[in-house]
Amino acid sequence: MESIYNFSAGPAALPKQVLSRAQQELLDWNGLGVSVMEISHRGKDFLACAEKAEADLRKLMSISDDYEVLFLQGGGRGQFFSVPMNLAKRGSFCQHLLSGQWSQIAVTEAKKYMDVDIVAKASLEDGMLMVPQPDQWQIKKDAAYFHYCPNETVDGIEINWVPHSKHGVPIVADMSSNILSKTIDVNKFGIIYAGAQKNIGPSGLAIVIVRKDLLSYSREDTPAVFDYAQQAKDGSMYNTPPTFGWYLAGLVFEWLLENGGLAEMEKLNNSKAQLLYSTIDTSEFYQNNISTDYRSKMNVTFHLNETSLDKLFLSEAEKAGLMFLKGHRFVGGMRASIYNAMPLEGVQALTAFMQDFEKKHG
Amino acid sequence: MESIYNFSAGPAALPKQVLSRAQQELLDWNGLGVSVMEISHRGKDFLACAEKAEADLRKLMSISDDYEVLFLQGGGRGQFFSVPMNLAKRGSFCQHLLSGQWSQIAVTEAKKYMDVDIVAKASLEDGMLMVPQPDQWQIKKDAAYFHYCPNETVDGIEINWVPHSKHGVPIVADMSSNILSKTIDVNKFGIIYAGAQKNIGPSGLAIVIVRKDLLSYSREDTPAVFDYAQQAKDGSMYNTPPTFGWYLAGLVFEWLLENGGLAEMEKLNNSKAQLLYSTIDTSEFYQNNISTDYRSKMNVTFHLNETSLDKLFLSEAEKAGLMFLKGHRFVGGMRASIYNAMPLEGVQALTAFMQDFEKKHG
Q1: Do B38 and A109 touch (CB under 8 A)?
Q2: What is the C-alpha radius of gyration for chain B, rounded to an integer number of angstroms?
Q3: Does residue A10 contact residue B40 with C-beta atoms inside 8 Å?
Q4: Are residues B163 and B276 both part of a single domain?
Q5: Which pLDDT band, with edges at 50, 70 and 90, does A330 fall under?
Q6: Could you give the count of Cα atoms lying within 13 Å of A323 in the half-sphere of its Cβ?
Q7: Do B204 and A245 count as a contact with CB atoms less than 8 A apart?
Q8: Is the dihedral of CA A236, A239, A240, A245 positive or negative?
Q9: Which residues of B touch A16 (CB under 8 A)?
Q10: CA angle A221, A227, A230 (to 5 degrees)
Q11: A69, A133, A252, B316: which is deepest, by most CB within 10 A?
């Protein structure tokens, strides 16, 4: 086998350079003679590593001092309860946009803590999946917050607009699967959160970017380790953080900065997605039914018209070094997750394979 | 420098063999050509790894089928709220034993969810720190549960008895810093939990061993990712688990089994602790004021009689490759954490250094 390309939706591929460096220094980090995993998070060595990671993330995303950046545990799902608990005193209800599986799960969890008002729901229009635009629904001025998921990992839907509330209702975004994939204006958001295991690092770490004026609305019984104000006060070290994940995230941030930052990443991600979608669209063998404006650049879902060939497609792909292309069990078909760590060559290898497979079996 | 011995209280030293193996297969695990960090937790490769880790832990601790073993996030502190939330419907109050810093913090968090009755508190008797024995206090029959911390990492206190309730009140133990250090009878406990970063693996993982009959008492608003019943149903994969930590914990369990299991570990830990405490006790230069029955075999705290020498002691120790001996900021002095991964040679090097330092400065 020549090269292996890992299309896993998450935990997902990490940049080779990052893993190689981690491997090299796994037993002797920073000249200490021990692993970065084996030292106190409160010691000067790890603190410096943690602070650099935060500073690099702030640089990458142009995060201003109006925001805290937290490195927490619990993944994206941990924020499904943390957001309503931390913003409980802002209002008795929140609003959610439903664009796919993950935004649906977020609603189920939020309902334990607040009334949830669904502003709109993705639906089929002329056979293509669409998300209703912000001019078709309203953010209410007394909502505690508005929540949406700009990239639906399971469905392969990405939303490129950012909703705006003229009443200053904070916009909360679950960016688990498209954070760091392109430039965004953080100032449009009250809270951005993301599980690490797609574009940041290994699973077990979550990043929360929260505007400082939102730190005083938590329920009294918010668990301390998920209390934004508590963690902000303690530099995300109220409890022992996932130090190896934090360190590895720092290496990913360095790698991004060395490679031109998010603007360059965005160009590359555009090229990768364009190549893959055009391969699908120019074929009579593969299909994707998501409206072009809402197609994810991170998770490209597609179906074979002849679903009886799914198994063969997957096994042949694996033989060609194209790994983990099986779609999520909720939607079936195929899914190519092409996060930042996926090089253009990986997508080229996939499209070449797809065309070849079509020739043989189409 | 000859050898480096890492006395960090946590995140703590991991077995060298475990780290070496992790290093070797960091970029190509299980012949997949990708890292164990880069694959789906729901794929067959990771599932097999996860199941083997659980099976090995069950073997090591003789955990019966009456118990679920959960691999969660949030560390030990994550359980400070998870325990009262998951056992809320068992009663309106819980009982806690106060033996040091960690059991105190557990109380502060539990009070958000339940009334807390303190059964007893560690105190000085004739200048020695003691924990009141179970015959001096009572577990009430209508308590939701009884909670204690068998090893206080900060204070260096270890409790060797297990309280018993004649009314069947579940005993909950925070074993974060002494799990796997000796044989215990799991059947005496309702819940055992532990943050991984001492004797299990890297930080960011917590193990919860919970008796199955305790899975039906949770509050309605228990966060799904911390709901024992939900996680038990989903094999700890309701959300994406910290896969690298789980994998590494599995390697630690294998290492323990290969080295004679917990009985052998207990012998070794006894030898290490005995050597260190006898060095302290036979000296006029060092002191430890914990009653001999309650001295921790994992975290050996001691003070220099001449505290002005603390800094010099630490810097000379570091030059000798004896790392991270500084005591916790709450208690000062020194602390040698000698978890499973610390070989006898490390303690021998430390005691030799202590005797040498005493000769020079005593």
Answers
A1: no
A2: 21
A3: yes
A4: no
A5: confident
A6: 22
A7: yes
A8: negative
A9: 27
A10: 115
A11: A252
Nearest to A201 by CA among A179, A232, A186, A225: A179
Supply φ then ψ for residue A312, to 5 degrees. Answer: -65, -45
Same-domain status, A252 and A285: no
CB contact under 8 A, B202 and A74: no
- Catalytic, out of A174, A182, A255, A272: A174
Place of tokens 């890292």: B35
> Could you count the other beta carbons within 10 Å of the beta carbon of residue A284?
8
Q: What is the pLDDT of residue A362?
A: 85
User: Once rounded to an integer, what is the mean pLDDT over residues A218-237?
Assistant: 98
The Cα–Cα gap between B256 and B49 comes to 16
Q: What are phi and psi of A174, to 5 degrees?
A: -90, 95
- Mean pLDDT calculated for residue range B201-218: 98
Of A258, A285, A318, the one marking the end of a domain is A258
Q: How confident is the model at residue B146 (pLDDT cuts 50, 70, 90)?
A: very high
The predicted-structure confidence for A63-117, as pLDDT tens digits, reads as follows 999 999 999 999 999 999 999 999 999 999 999 999 999 999 999 999 999 999 9
CATH code for position B131: 3.40.640.10
One domain, residues A205 and A286: no
Q: Cα–Cα distance between A172 and A189 in angstroms, integer?
A: 6
- Average confidence score pLDDT of chain A: 97
Residues of B in contact with A80 (CB under 8 A): 223-224
Beta bridge partner(s), residue B63 = none
The string of DSSP letters for B280-317 reads HHT-SSEE--B-GGGB-SSEEEEEESSGGGHHHHHHHH
Contact B11 A243 (CB under 8 A): yes
A chain contacts of residue B195, beta-carbon cutoff 8 Å: 240
In the predicted structure, residue B2 carries a pLDDT above the cut 70: no
Q: What is the model's pLDDT at position A283?
A: 96
> Residue A202 gets which letter from DSSP?
S
Average pLDDT over residues B224-250: 98
Does residue B198 carry a catalytic annotation?
yes
Is B297 noted as a catalytic residue in this protein? no
- pLDDT reported for residue B329: 87
Question: Structurally, how many domains does chain A consist of?
Answer: 2
Is A69:A211 a contact under the CB 8 Å cutoff? no
**Residue B1: is its pLDDT beyond 60?**
no
Using alpha carbons, select from A155, B84, A132 the residue that is nearest to residue A118: A132
Interchain pair A324, B43: CB under 8 A: yes
Same domain? A101 vs A55: yes
Cβ contact B40–A78 (<8 Å): no
Average model confidence (pLDDT) for chain B? 97
Residues B245 and B277 in one domain: no
SS3 per-residue string spanning A258-293: HCCHHHHHHHHHHHHHHHHHHHHHCCCCEECCECHH
Q: Pick the residue from chain A with its C-alpha nearest to B75.
A: A240
Q: Which of chain A's residues have a Cβ under 8 Å away from the Cβ of B324?
A: 39-40, 43
Q: Is residue B194 domain-resident?
A: yes
Tell me the average pLDDT across B343-353.
98
User: Residue A259's pLDDT is what?
Assistant: 97
Q: Provide the shortest C-alpha distance from residue A239 to chain B (in Å).
A: 7
Same domain, A100 and A213: yes
- In this structure, the answer to whether residues A251 and A266 fall within a common structural domain is no
Residue after which a domain boundary falls, among B235, B258, B281: B258
Respond yes or no: is residue A234 known to be catalytic: no
Among residues A198, A272, A297, A326, which one is catalytic?
Answer: A198
> Which position has the token pair 């002191």?
B287
- Lookup result for tokens 């960016």: A175
pLDDT of A256-273, one tens digit each? 999 999 999 999 999 999
